[in-house]
């Protein structure tokens, strides 16, 4: 399985409001009988190579497909695809796009012993830019997010193999959440499957939820990874109402368990969307880790969302 956690280690929203009612697609938003629903967003990690090669062309294509909200992630060009926060926000607006959230690691993952260096197309080592993380740079990350006008700073992943790492993550999240609150933005944690595996008999995800106040940290629920973990999103909504304002809309192939285009896998997205009101949903972002043809794949995912919902 290739996901962002592996990438880092080796390197508006469709708020259906729980209403099962007739919908129609109008422009770039979905509408139902109670009015417009937030537009569909995209996690730019899905199109990393394309956007690093052609920022303007890729943003233009994303807007043409119908996406309106953006969530950024780590880039090998440094900063925000080579730009400063305000510069990227301005660039996004030029194409009618709104920058809503940014991903950053909680703490660096340990590189495997003897891991080979990353090489470019000519076989030369790639000099990686400074990668901020919340453990060491939380205030700088918060300041950048506030400067860019994003609504949420999101921890993309963090080491949790030991209870020491889990507790360090909790301390880091608490500090970051407080700093975000002071800056007037939200803070959230994005899950993979690891958070639903026990560490010394305890589930890190439940520890995060129980030991950090909801007004300090929300959750960005990755619908594919939570499904793969065997955890029912609806049960999470029931136990922690309003705690999940951000979603990653992602699908998985039943055989390979790898991300595929939305609507092409086995994740029961409609069931989750039909119960979104309890989650507190504000923004959703389509994501497909290691997408083989990113721009084609996100086009299909957008079209399938229109058909499904």
The CATH architecture: Alpha-Beta Barrel
Helix- and strand-based class? alpha/beta
Listing every helix as H and every strand as E from the N terminus to the C terminus, the arrangement reads HEEEEHHEHEHEHEHEHHEEEHEH
Number of helices: 11
Strand order of the largest sheet: 4-5-6-7-8-9-10-13
**Bulk shape:** globular
Query: Main beta sheet: strand number and arrangement?
Result: 8 strands, parallel, barrel
What is the fold-level CATH name, i.e. the topology? TIM Barrel
Radius of gyration: 18 Å
Walkthrough of the structure:
By secondary structure, the chain is of the alpha/beta class. The protein has helices spanning 4-9, 48-53, 55-65, 85-94, 134-148, 163-183, 204-211, 223-228, 233-239, 269-273, 294-308; strands at 23-26, 29-32, 35-36, 41-43, 69-72, 98-104, 152-155, 186-190, 218-222, 246-249, 251-252, 259-260, 283-286. It has one domain (4-13, 26-107, 128-289, 300-308): Divalent-metal-dependent TIM barrel enzymes (TIM Barrel), CATH 3.20.20. The chain has eleven helices and 13 strands. The strands form three sheets. An eight-stranded parallel β-barrel has the order 4-5-6-7-8-9-10-13, surrounded by four helices. The longest helix has 21 residues, at 163-183. It is globular, with a radius of gyration of 18 Å. 43% of the residues are buried.
């Amino acid at each position: 399985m290739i996901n962002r956690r592996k990438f880092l280690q080796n390197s508006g929203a469709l708020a259906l409001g729980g209403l099962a009612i007739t919908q129609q697609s109008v422009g770039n938003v979905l509408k139902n009988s109670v009015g417009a629903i937030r537009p569909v967003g995209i996690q730019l990690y899905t199109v990393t190579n394309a956007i690093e090669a052609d920022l303007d062309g890729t943003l233009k294509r994303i807007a043409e497909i119908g996406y309106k909200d953006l969530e950024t992630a780590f880039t090998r060009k440094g900063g925000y695809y080579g730009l400063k926060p305000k510069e990227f926000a301005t660039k996004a607006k030029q194409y009618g796009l709104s920058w809503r959230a940014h991903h950053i690691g909680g703490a660096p993952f340990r590189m495997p012993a003897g891991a080979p260096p990353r090489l470019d197309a000519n076989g030369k080592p790639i000099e990686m830019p400074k990668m901020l993380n919340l453990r060491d740079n939380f205030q700088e990350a918060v300041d950048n997010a506030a400067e860019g006008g994003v609504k949420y700073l999101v921890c993309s992943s963090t080491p949790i193999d030991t209870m020491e790492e889990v507790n360090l993550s909790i301390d880091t999240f608490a500090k970051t959440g407080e700093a975000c609150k002071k800056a007037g933005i939200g803070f959230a944690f994005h899950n993979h499957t690891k958070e639903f595996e026990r560490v010394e008999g305890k589930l890190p995800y439940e520890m995060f939820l129980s030991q950090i106040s909801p007004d300090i940290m929300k959750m960005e629920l990755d619908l594919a990874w939570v499904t793969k973990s065997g955890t029912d999103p609806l049960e999470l909504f029931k136990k922690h109402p309003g705690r999940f304002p951000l979603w990653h809309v992602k699908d998985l192939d039943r055989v390979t368990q790898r991300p595929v285009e939305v609507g092409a896998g086995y994740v029961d997205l409609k069931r989750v969307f039909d119960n979104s009101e309890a989650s507190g949903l504000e923004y959703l972002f389509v994501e497909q880790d290691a997408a083989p043809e990113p721009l084609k794949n996100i086009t299909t995912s957008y079209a399938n969302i229109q058909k499904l919902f």
